[in-house]
C-alpha cells in the first residue's frame, strides 16, 4: 500500500460531465502513487487557511499526466471554491487513502454504483482495461435519470479491452447511453438476481450516497442472503448538497 504523502499541486483543466457534475484534473508528481478505488483529501485555499474535502480518484493509477476527481457541485462553500478554480491555481493534496480497492482478484466481481458513487469504479475499470486483466466484472450503475450517467463513453471503450465487463444502467427517466444495457426503474433485489444469477458466489462492491449504500447492503443480506463478508462498501459523506 503506498504511504500517504502531502504536496502542492496545480489545476490543469476541468471537464464538464453534466450541468452540475465536473471533473478536476491536477498535476501529478512522480511520487503520487495510489491504487484503483482509493481517495484523497483536496485542500483549497481560503482567506482563513484551507478548506478540505475527501474525493475518490476517478482517474486510473496508469494515467500518469494528472490526478482526477469528479464531483457533483452544489451550493456549498466547498463547491463554490471548486467552481472558482482556474487552470494554474494552486491546491494541496494528501493521498492516498482508503481500502476500497479491486485489482482483478477474485476474477468474478459485481460493482454497484449510485449517482456520483461511480467515480472509484471508473478508476478501477480503467486500470483493469489498461492492463487487460482477465476478470469478469459486472457494473450496475444507478441514477435518477439517464442524463445523469457519466463516463459512459469510457465504459464502452474499456469493454473493448476488457471483454469480461458487463455494464447495466438503471434509470427512472431519460435516455440510456449506447455501449451498455439499460433497465428502466430502480435497482431491486429482483433485478440483481436477474442480472447476477451467481450472486451467492461473488463479492459486491457498493459506492454511493450513505442511504443508498445502506439500503442495497441490507437488501443483499436480508432478501438475497448474501453474506455480509462478501459486501465491500464506500459511502460518500456530504452527498446531497452538504459539501
Describe the structure.
The protein is α/β, with parallel strands linked by helices and 243 residues long. The chain folds into 2 domains: 5-97, Elongation Factor Tu (Ef-tu), domain 3 (Beta Barrel); 108-235, Nucleotide-binding domain of ferredoxin-NADP reductase (FNR) module (Rossmann fold, 3-Layer(aba) Sandwich). The chain is 21% helix and 37% strand. The chain is built from 5 helices and 12 strands. The chain has helices spanning 77-84, 119-130, 152-161, 189-195, 210-223; strands at residues 5-16, 21-27, 39-46, 49-56, 66-72, 90-97, 108-114, 136-145, 166-173, 181-184, 204-208, 231-235.
Keyword list:
globular; alpha/beta; Elongation Factor Tu (Ef-tu), domain 3; six-stranded parallel β-sheet
Report the structural category: alpha/beta
* CATH fold label of the largest domain: Rossmann fold
- Quote the distance from N terminus to C terminus: 28 Å
% residues in beta strands: 35-45%
Q: Count helical runs.
A: 5
The CATH homologous superfamily name of the largest domain equals Nucleotide-binding domain of ferredoxin-NADP reductase (FNR) module
Number of strands: 12
Low-confidence stretches: 238-243
Rg for CA atoms: 18 Å
Largest sheet: 6 strands, antiparallel
Task: Give the strand order, joined by hyphens, for the main sheet.
Answer: 4-3-6-1-2-5
Summarize it.
The chain is α/β, with parallel strands linked by helices.
Secondary-structure blueprint:
Blueprint: E1 5-16, E2 21-27, E3 39-46, E4 49-56, E5 66-72, H1 77-84, E6 90-97, E7 108-114, H2 119-130, E8 136-145, H3 152-161, E9 166-173, E10 181-184, H4 189-195, E11 204-208, H5 210-223, E12 231-235
Parallel strand pairs: 7-8, 7-11, 8-9, 9-10, 11-12
Antiparallel strand pairs: 1-2, 1-6, 2-5, 3-4, 3-6
Helix pairs in contact: 2-3
Amino acid at each position: 500500500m503506498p504511504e500517504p504523502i502531502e504536496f502542492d499541486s496545480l489545476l490543469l483543466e476541468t471537464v464538464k460531465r453534466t450541468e452540475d457534475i465536473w471533473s478536476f484534473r491536477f498535476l501529478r508528481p512522480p511520487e503520487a502513487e495510489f491504487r484503483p478505488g482509493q481517495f484523497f483529501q483536496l485542500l483549497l485555499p481560503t482567506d482563513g487557511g484551507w478548506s478540505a474535502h475527501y474525493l475518490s480518484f476517478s482517474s486510473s493509477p496508469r494515467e500518469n499526466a494528472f490526478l482526477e476527481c469528479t464531483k457533483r457541485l452544489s451550493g456549498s462553500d466547498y463547491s463554490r471554491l471548486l467552481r472558482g478554480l482556474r487552470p494554474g491555481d494552486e491546491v494541496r493534496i494528501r493521498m492516498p487513502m482508503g481500502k476500497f480497492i479491486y485489482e482483478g482478484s477474485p476474477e468474478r466481481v459485481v460493482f454497484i454504483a449510485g449517482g456520483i458513487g461511480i467515480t472509484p469504479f471508473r478508476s478501477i475499470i480503467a486500470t483493469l482495461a489498461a492492463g487487460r486483466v482477465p476478470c469478469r466484472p459486472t457494473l450496475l450503475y444507478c441514477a435518477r435519470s439517464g442524463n445523469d450517467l457519466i463516463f459512459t463513453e469510457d465504459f464502452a471503450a474499456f469493454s473493448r479491452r476488457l471483454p469480461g465487463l458487463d455494464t447495466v444502467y438503471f434509470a427512472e427517466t431519460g435516455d440510456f447511453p449506447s455501449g451498455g444495457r439499460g433497465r428502466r426503474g430502480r435497482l431491486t433485489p429482483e433485478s440483481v438476481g436477474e442480472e447476477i444469477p451467481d450472486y451467492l458466489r461473488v463479492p459486491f462492491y457498493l459506492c454511493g450516497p450513505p442511504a443508498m449504500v445502506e439500503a442495497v447492503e441490507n437488501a443483499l443480506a436480508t432478501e438475497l442472503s448474501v453474506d455480509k463478508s462478501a459486501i465491500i462498501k464506500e459511502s460518500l459523506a456530504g452527498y446531497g448538497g452538504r459539501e
